[in-house]
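Worked Example 4.2. Read the sequence first, then its structure tokens.
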Amino acid sequence: MIKRKKYLINPDFQISFIKLIMILLIIVIGIFYGANTLLFWTFAEKGRVLGLEPNHVFFSFLMEQRNTMDMIFIWTTLVTTIVVISYGLFLSNRVAGPVHRLKVFLDEYKANNNQSPLKFRKKDYFPELAESINEALKLK
């Protein structure tokens, strides 16, 4: 039997965490895109100041380079978004998992005075929390 891993343990926390990371990503990409746009606008302005005609090869080259950079931004944004969402889900799982396990443990303890020690997954964050709770409840 294949054991499926559940990545969305606490949807409220995990989705809000990923949304926050995405907002930061959009801000950073927006700043870089704005700086890139300003750079090409400055080059075009320099061409106009030099008196180049609008159909001059310089402006064609500039537009071609800007289109290339726009495509780079589009692909970078797509790939980065996929990576950030994936990593955000993975990272938030490492935080939400122990909290979920702690809640289940405390509910079981309260319901039938569970005597088995609290354990987190090997790579979860906050392993010291399980140790502290086990010591406090004298479960070792």
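Now turn to a second chain, presented in exactly the same format:
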Amino acid sequence: MRLVLATHDFASLGGSETYLLTAAQQLQRLGHEVTIHTVNAGEMTDLARASGVLVAVGESQLPAAWDAALVQDAGMALALRALRPEAPVALRASSEVSDFQLPPALAGVVAAVIALSERVADRIRAMDDPPPVIRLRQAIDVDRFAPRVAPRPRPEVAVVLGNHLRGQRLEALRSAWEPEGIDIRVVGRHGTASAAPETALAEADIAVAKGRALLEGMACGRPAYVYDFAGTDGWVTPERYPALEAEGFGGRATGRITDPALMRADLAAYDPAMGLANRDLVIAHHSARRHAEELAGVLGGLTSACDGQADRAPLREMARLVRLQQATEARAAAAALAAQIAAEDARRLAAELEAAMTELVQLRGQREAVEANTRQAAELWRQIDALRATRRYRLAGAIGGFADALAMRRGPA
């Protein structure tokens, strides 16, 4: 098949971007002709091209024809439907939070929706006249994400993997685990960004993440702890796996709240053997090779509801408006995050300033004490000099000198 895998943003390192690249690589291994299509290119685009995947930036670089498309946002669904109505479009809904990652509420645009969790599938099914929902599981490259060394018997390093955990929630984790001797390393937008997170995971004993990033840690044979901005579910175990997977490893499967005392108790339950069990779970349920086989079957079985003669202008205009709104909301979200970070920085700087002022007051008091002692010492020296200048002091000195000389003449007694 000739396939187009499309997403509005293919610039930064993130879960939806790595999913699309993984799917493209595995579909290529099955012999399909794959093109990733995007509007916003960047580091992920370079990584895809370096791995041998064709990336079309803008519609002018798209192939002349394709048999089916897999998209990750509503704007791309509308745009590709308008460009080639005879080619069916499937949408992979990566989140139930963003409306842009859900199918357009317009019949015939999307032939099917692929959901990688029950939480997302439930959101799609709740729509008015929803398209068919196909439930698959996340796809992890188990060759790339593989164990290198076993986790330590006693944990020393925890890697927080992802682009969202920061601020108060990250500090809650630090306050719970760092006093227990855990070195917490943040890999992502709010820490050290990395195109090779498997390297950081190889040095870790614990993977702390949500969603796809958590599964990457599991594939590397790490004990995995579900914790991120949305909530916390704790350790992944074979018994807990079904409920956690259905929820998408998003931290909302158990109803637990963020509690440092509970997190310390969780740490005490650490077992390096959890890493081996996690590796087995990923191989059994999340192999990218198996996912690509299922995905190829889904895309090959789709049919277009359009005969190719429909008016495409409304779809193109809707695609433009959706993309415009998506870009506007993305800028607003970035501005809100920047304002939040600025507010936190201002609060931190205010606390540092207050501490510096307190220290300055203390130093000023110490300086005044030193100056007072200096003045007192100077007064004492002045009095000594005045005493030395008197006739009595000089006479006493002369008598003392005469007595010393007389004693020397007499010799020892």
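Notes for the reader: The first helix runs from residue 15 to 29. The chain has a mean pLDDT of 89.
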